[in-house]
Amino acid sequence: MPSSGRLTLDSAASYAIRVQGYLDSSWSERMGGVDIQAGQRADGAPETVLSGVFQDQAALAGALNLLYDLGLPLLAVERLHDSQPESGSASAMVGMASSAQSQQVGDATNQMADGGS
Questions:
Q1: Residue 27 sits in which domain range?
Q2: Please, what is the average pLDDT of the chain?
Q3: Quick one: which of 6, 34, 61, 73 could link to 20 by a disulfide (CB 3.0–4.6 Å)?
């Protein structure tokens, strides 16, 4: 699809997603290779930033739904830039398969139970 510089529902784009709470970097592979950086805000609250290229708006919505299912409150979603990944670069794109989501939610529940509140 030719890029007109305008975002559409089916165009790939880079996003940064900030959530309150801690998400381990091991989730990166499960979420299609996004970069996950966990830290603390100035007030000491834990915060995680996920950044990467999402193949379309459905993939972005899938990631947001998964974060919701994990109980991580959304702080911000920001589109980073207009560049499009190369069409053959599947590793640069984030896709959410609904069958994998239920397994991820179960794994997260176990991790959260092991890690405390």
A1: 20-82
A2: 75
A3: 73
Question: Is 115 within a domain?
Answer: no
Cα(98)–Cα(3) distance, rounded to whole angstroms?
A: 28
**Looking at the 3D structure of the chain, how many domains does it have?**
1
Residue 113 lies inside a defined structural domain of this protein: no
CA angle, 81 then 82 then 84, to 5°: 115
Q: What is the pTM of this model?
A: 0.68
Residue 15 lies in a domain: no
Contact 13, 6 (CB under 8 A): no
Using CB atoms within 10 Å of the CB of residue 78, give its burial: 0 to 12 exposed, 13 to 18 middle, 19+ buried. exposed
Q: Is 55 exposed, middle or buried (0-12, 13-18, 19+ CB in 10 A)?
A: buried
Q: Is residue 69 over pLDDT 90?
A: yes
